[in-house]
Amino acid sequence: MSKALPQVGFVSLGCPKASSDAERILTQLRAEGYEISGSYQDADLVVVNTCGFIDAAVEESLDAIGEALAENGKVIVTGCLGAKGSVVRDTHPSVLAVTGPHALDEVMEAVHAHLPKLHDPYTDLIPPQGIRLTPDHYAYLKISEGCNHRCSFCIIPSLRGDLVSRPVGEVMSEAERLVEAGVKELLVISQDTSAYGVDVKYRTGFWNGRPLKTRMTELASALGELGAWVRLHYVYPYPHVDEVIPLMAEGRILPYLDIPFQHASPAILKAMRRPGNIENTLERIRGWREICPDIVIRSTFIAGFPGETDEDFQMLLDFLEEAQLDRVGCFAYSPVEGAAANELPGALPEAVRQERQAIFMETQADISAARLARHIDRTMTVLVDEVTEEGAVARSYADAPEIDGLVYIADGDQLQVGDFVEVLITDSDQHDLWAQLA
Ligand code: SF4
Question: What is the DSSP string of 334-392?
């Protein structure tokens, strides 16, 4: 009888970027012949991929490590929390190893040290596209790590370092493999997608023997040739973002732009260390809509930032009314340990921060509802995410998985997950759409 394969349990917390790290580790584990165990009891050891972005995430990560230690006892910690000094070791001194984010080699080294792999030439039979945590029909495509900005509320650069772009040929080959394996939608992620290639001076790489610049516009255009939906996330509002709008208008990539503006008051943007010319931003949004009338703009904001006056907040609400963004998220400012913004004067009481967030979201709810209602009586192509006896749940180009809305298709019970179908939109609210097969 052959020897049982070593079993590794895996717990992954955090954002899509952390999921992408997790996918790499899982792929490597399977490539080396480890089994991924679905329970603590069957695992020989457990890897916990943590998040350390806000205090609540730190707590959640520390709890997850504690649970894995209690249930299994042998735990390796990786991810953003691992980069935050000694917090993991101070709380859980018995963990086997602690690494920071994107530390595949270090994680594998720790796994080898505590759970040696079996030598078996047949166990590296894994699918060429690797192991993914997302459903088969969409996948995250990570194009870079780290960030060269120093937004005062954010500690990502201190956790993940300055921008490091992945070689463009490697990104394209991964995207190609994913599409060949059946992926219908590629979600381009990074900390700062529009900065792609800045660190390598937009070096020219090669994809299938063809020269290709390490640059967002060129990458987006090449990805658009693969025949899958291409969705751009975390696009910092640099001027050259304007260049990808024609690609959206041509249908080469989805007319969807996830572009965090964070605020609209020049004084607050300055305190945040973000680009501050809001008139210019409104002008650019108008220009984008002229070139690509269907463009959907998603953004995020922070309400109640230190020093935010009533006038600053009103400016933010006025911006919302003016900009008519499609999808918006808003956080009440909350201090993140280690962030420069904690030292700023004018911290607002928690109740005020919460109240401003609520007013902001109320204002946006009507705008989002009106933006969605314009789809009624239109035909749209949607991608099916789930099928039940009651119908299908899908998304249109306007909806990124997990963060935006859904399209409910009442007569879609015969569809398959991953199908592209044409639907007629019949109803909407402030978040979702309802439809029937066209
Ligand atoms: S651009 Fe994003 S990741 Fe970079 S410092 Fe600012 S908020 Fe953080």
Answer: ---TT-GGGG-S-PPPHHHHHHHHHHHHHHHHHHHHHHHHTTTT-EEEEEEEEEETTEE
Q: Which two tokens stand for residue 428?
A: 């909407």
User: Is the CB of residue 91 less than 8 Å from the CB of residue 116?
Assistant: no
For residue 81, what pLDDT is reported?
87
Give the residue whose CA is nearest to atom 6 of ligand 1: 151
178 near 126, Cβ under 8 Å? no
Structure tokens at 47: 């890897």
pLDDT of residue 160: 83
- Cβ neighbors of 349 (< 8 A, separation 6 or more) are none
Cα of 265 from ligand 1 centre, angstroms = 18
Model pLDDT, residue 20: 78
Q: What is the pTM of this model?
A: 0.76
* Beta bridge partners of residue 25, listed in sequence order: none
Atom of ligand 1 nearest to the CA of 234: 2
Q: How far apart are CA 142 and CA 193, in angstroms?
A: 9
- Using most ligand atoms within 8 A of CB, pick from 17, 80, 149, 272 the residue to mutate for ligand 1: 149
Facing residues of 391 across strands? Answer: 388
- Determine the distance separating the centroid of ligand 1 and the alpha carbon of 159, expressed in angstroms: 11
Tokens of 426: 């019949």
Grouped pLDDT means (10 residues each) for the chain, 438 residues: 73 77 83 82 92 81 92 92 84 90 85 76 52 82 93 89 94 94 94 95 94 97 98 92 97 97 96 87 95 96 97 97 96 89 94 96 95 96 94 96 94 96 96 96
Residue type, 233: H
Q: How far apart are CA 315 and CA 367, in angstroms?
A: 16
